[in-house]
Each structure stands twice: as C-alpha cells, then as structure tokens.
C-alpha cells in the first residue's frame, strides 16, 4: 500500500491510479528480487517504514543484476512521495518493454545460489531443477562457480534511456 493510504489526516482512504503505480513498483521489486519489500521487518513495522517514506534498497550482487539502472529509476519514479508525480502504469509498461528489448540477461549461473537459510524468501534458484539445469547447462546445486560468476561484471542495459520514466 502506498504511503498516502496510511495518512491519518485523510478521512477516506481510496485507492487511486497513483497508489496502484506505487504498488506496481513494489510488485516489480518483489518479482525481480525474490523478496517481499521490507521482508526483514515485522509486518507492523512495515507500515511505519512506508508511511515514513522508506523505500526498498537496491539489491546488490547477484540479485542486483536484475535491476539495471533504467529499471531501478522506473521503480523510484513509482515510489515518488507525491502521488501526482508518479508515472502512469502505461508509462511504466513502456519503459519495461524498452529495457527488455535491449537488456542482456545475466548468466543463469548467477541465479542458482539459494536465498539465505534465515530469509523468508524465494529465489529464482527455487525454480531450477536437475532437469532444467541440464537443459541450460548449469549445476542444480550451489557451487564455488556461482560465487565466481556473481563477482564478474554484468553487461549494463542499453545506452538508450527512456526520457520520461526510465
């Protein structure tokens, strides 16, 4: 839920296209990172973080490769504090389409490592079975190769930048 939906000064809290854009940014973050936003906090604390203007941090390392600069900038636009300053959902979709046409995905080896044991998350590695690993030529279990691969640089998204959202 967007911060304005927690504002005690507003008598009637109605979802709007602006709050939907904020939520879309959070869903994109969750899908790409494999983590719920603010997963490390108790649910009651999340309300305070969102209402206080906190936003998820940009993932680093192997998780960070799913967040090229253009995508991260689009998410930040979705989470702009002033609802009227957020892009339309259509603008976000157009940005993602442009980025997806030119973006080179990371090696599948980058997503094989499982999430930390104490983390209530899922990851792309949960989708890799022995059969699918054989098909794409990777190991279905974490290895030292994964650590070496995640330290390598990953190609950035295209030099083209979307003017409005991205």
**Distance linking N and C termini:** 22 Å
Quick one: overall form? flat
Helix/strand order = HHHHHHH
Radius of gyration: 18 Å
Q: Percent range for helical residues?
A: 40-55%
| Name of the CATH architecture | Orthogonal Bundle
Query: How large a portion of the residues is in β-strands, by DSSP E?
Result: under 5%
In total, the number of domains comes to 1
- Name the poorly predicted regions: 123-128, 138-163
CATH class: Mainly Alpha
Briefly note the CATH topology name: Transferase(Phosphotransferase), domain 1
Number of helices: 7
Structural write-up:
By secondary structure, the protein is mainly alpha-helical. It has a single domain, classed as Transferase(Phosphotransferase), domain 1, CATH 1.10.510. Helices cover 42% and strands 0% of the residues. The protein has seven helices and no strands. The protein is flat and about 50 Å long. It starts with 16 loop residues before the first helix and ends in a 15-residue tail after the last helix.
Topology diagram in text:
Layout: H1 17-33, H2 43-51, H3 61-64, H4 69-78, H5 89-102, H6 130-136, H7 144-151
Helix pairs in contact: 1-4, 4-5
Concise summary:
This protein has 7 helices and no strands. The protein has 166 residues and is mainly alpha-helical. The protein has one domain (3-151): Transferase(Phosphotransferase), domain 1 (Orthogonal Bundle), CATH 1.10.510.
């Amino acid at each position: 839920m967007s911060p304005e939906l927690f504002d005690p000064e507003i008598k009637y809290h109605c979802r709007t296209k602006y709050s939907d854009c904020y939520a879309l940014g959070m869903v994109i973050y969750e899908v790409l990172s494999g983590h719920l936003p603010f997963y490390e906090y108790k649910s009651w604390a999340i309300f305070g973080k969102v209402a206080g203007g906190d936003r998820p941090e940009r993932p680093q390392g192997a998780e960070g490769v799913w967040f090229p600069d253009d995508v991260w900038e689009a998410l930040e636009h979705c989470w702009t504090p002033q609802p009227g300053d957020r892009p339309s959902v259509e603008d976000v979709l157009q940005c993602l389409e442009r980025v997806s046409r030119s973006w080179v995905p990371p090696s599948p080896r980058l997503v094989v490592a499982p999430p930390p044991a104490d983390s209530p998350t899922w990851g792309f590695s949960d989708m890799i079975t022995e059969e699918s690993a054989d098909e794409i030529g990777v190991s279905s279990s974490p290895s030292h190769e994964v650590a070496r691969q995640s330290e390598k640089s990953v190609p950035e998204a295209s030099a083209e930048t979307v003017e409005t959202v991205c």
